[in-house]
Write a structure and sequence with these properties.
The structure holds 2 protein chains of 2 kinds. Chain A contains 8 helices and 10 strands. Chain A is about 25% helix and about 15% strand.
Chain lengths: ~280, ~300
């Protein structure tokens, strides 16, 4: 199979076919509409229970009602709580958002994985094969969103699988199933993108001008996210990078630079041996 | 222009997960990988130009560096017993996969060449192994820069144009330094030139890199990474100076070599720590990305 034109970055209409699946099902994902999130954390609990994710600390952080802090090896859904004075009337407002692995079109974790443990599934999602992972940890700093992490005491890396096992059985992921307000919506990505565009329009018409989509655009630095969001403030307020780029976009250039440096080293050494002996 | 460090974040928490690689495992691996790679090249050049003491010393350094490197890398894994999974696939998009396929044959060839040189057995096969190791050596010394650069870590990723040259120069200095320490003056002329040239290039390239990086390069100048790189610069500069003036002194040459080796080692520790610091502080992630989105 010849590599596609946008193998490392840019829009990719059929990500599963690009990964080699002959007749893949529709690409699926999450649309997390944070404007209706009530911060109940049912998603966090459902995810932990269904996926048997171990307990990872029961501390009180003082970060509003957020005590799970960030996504990690043992937190695959993370509800962020932001307390703000509203720019309109000065009242306190709460922003709540359930974060999750973005299942990028161009997934840096998958690109850099040296063992082939991280794979693209037929649904277009990104999954770690735990029986292959040798805990090299390369995916961890490669992720532009800081999602995937190594589990202490285990050594391997873990992250959201978009409930691969449930998808195979025709069910929706546990977090979406448990969400009482449909803040977390699961479905075919194309459909979710249309639904999200409509929702933003409704919010704008209703005077919520700060509403914006994040990760929906196939022209962004990761070719669009499989899990995207409707936010009510800048992404960095939620702990999300404002303009993430898949690091492998620059990889051909990096290899060229390294080849140049290797050549310089070989030449430098050779030149050092030229000339007369003392 | 350095962007203003005004930015918003989620309770000051990092956006990225920093490298989970262990220290000293990974910085030491970078150092010995560079040392082994350039030593393999030196060994072959020494063999061609009939410098037997230099050839032997460099073959031993190449093999020793490779063995220490493999050990450090396996020890760094979360599941060391699965180290062979590194050779399960070959992926050009994974510098660690490409690196494993460089390191594995390099180590085998470098060890075979050293064993043959030390014991005198199978000299032709040993020499062929040495040629193979020398061919892979420069890649061994520079791919680790791509390993670091191909991450979301701002101080590493943004440094990708210069980092391979910093590592190549650092490797040249280390490979030359081994010869300065191990062989008599009558054979050490070429490695003196290599060590001085490598050390000088390391100082220049690192400076060029830091300058161009501006704001994102801050962790190379400040904090633990900055202190380590400062110490590395002092040692490397001392080594370059020593290399120029100790041409007639065996002890002086050895001290020069030691300074350059220490400088090369600390450069890798400094780059490693700078990367960790740049991932830990959300400003290095948010500020440049925000600047990219803001029309000028």
């Amino acid at each position: 199979m010849s590599p596609s034109r946008n193998a490392l970055s840019g829009p990719l209409p059929d990500v599963a076919a690009d990964a080699g699946y002959a007749a893949p099902p529709e690409r699926v994902g999450f649309f997390t509409d944070t404007s209706v999130c009530i911060g109940c954390k049912a998603c966090e609990v459902a995810c932990k229970e269904w996926n048997l994710v171990p307990e990872d600390g029961l501390q009180l952080t003082g970060m509003s009602y957020d005590n799970s802090v960030a996504l990690g090896a043992d937190t695959w859904r993370h509800v962020a709580f932001i307390e703000q004075s509203s720019p309109v009337d000065g009242d306190l407002r709460w922003l709540m958002s359930s974060d999750v692995c973005k299942h990028c079109t161009h997934a840096a974790c998958l690109d850099v994985c040296p063992t082939g443990s991280l794979i693209r599934t037929e649904f277009g999602t990104v999954v770690v094969q735990e029986d292959i992972c040798n805990g090299c940890g390369y995916c961890v700093p490669a992720c532009p969103y800081g999602v995937i992490d190594q589990r202490p005491g285990d050594g391997r890396v873990f992250k959201c699988t978009l409930c691969y096992d449930r998808l195979g059985a025709g069910m929706e992921p546990a977090c979406a199933k448990a969400c009482p307000t449909e803040s977390i919506q699961f479905g075919p990505l194309e459909e979710l993108r249309e639904r999200a565009a409509e929702r933003v329009q409704v919010l704008h018409e209703g005077g919520v001008e700060q509403a914006r989509l994040y990760g929906h655009d196939p022209d962004d630095g990761v070719g669009g996210d499989g899990a995207f969001f409707l936010l009510l403030d800048e992404p960095e307020v939620y702990g999300l990078p404002p303009d993430p780029v898949v690091t492998t976009r620059d990889l051909p250039d990096m290899w060229r630079r390294a080849a140049g440096a290797a050549l310089a080293l070989a030449l430098g050494a050779t030149v050092s041996f030229l000339g007369r002996r003392p | 222009m350095v962007p203003e460090a005004e930015f918003r974040s989620y309770y000051g928490r990092p956006v990225l997960k920093g490298p989970v690689w262990k220290t000293p495992d990974v910085p030491v691996y970078l150092f010995v990988g560079g040392l082994a790679g350039s030593s393999a090249v030196v060994a072959e050049l020494a063999a061609w130009t009939r410098r037997p003491a230099l050839e032997r010393a460099s073959r031993v350094a190449a093999a020793g560096g490779a063995l220490v490197g493999v050990t450090a890398l396996v020890h760094d894994l979360g599941r060391p017993e699965r180290f062979l999974n590194m050779l399960r696939v070959f992926k050009l998009t994974s510098p660690l996969s490409v690196g494993s396929w460089i390191l594995a044959p390099f180590s085998g060839l470098a060890v075979a060449a050293a064993l043959s040189a030390l014991t005198g057995t199978l000299p032709r096969l040993g020499r062929a192994a040495g040629v193979g190791a020398a061919a892979l050596g420069p890649a061994m010394a520079t791919y680790t820069a791509v390993l670091f650069a191909d991450t979301a870590v701002p101080a590493w990723h943004e440094a990708y144009p210069e980092l391979p040259y910093v590592f190549a120069a650092s490797a040249a200095a280390a490979g030359g330094a081994v010869g300065l320490i191990a062989v008599p003056l009558r054979e050490s002329g070429p490695v003196r030139r290599l060590a001085v040239g490598g050390g000088a290039a390391e100082l220049v390239m690192e400076r060029v890199m830091e300058r161009r990086l501006g704001f994102v390069g801050e962790p190379y100048r400040e904090g633990r990474g900055g202190r380590l790189l400062g110490a590395a610069r002092l040692l490397t500069a001392a080594g370059v100076f020593g290399g120029l003036v100790t041409g007639r002194s065996r002890a002086g040459s050895a001290a020069t070599g030691a300074a350059l080796l220490a400088g090369s080692l600390l450069t890798r520790f400094g780059v490693f720590e700078a990367g960790r610091a740049s991932a830990r502080d959300p400003k290095y992630t948010v500020v440049p990305q925000r600047a990219r989105l803001t029309p000028h």
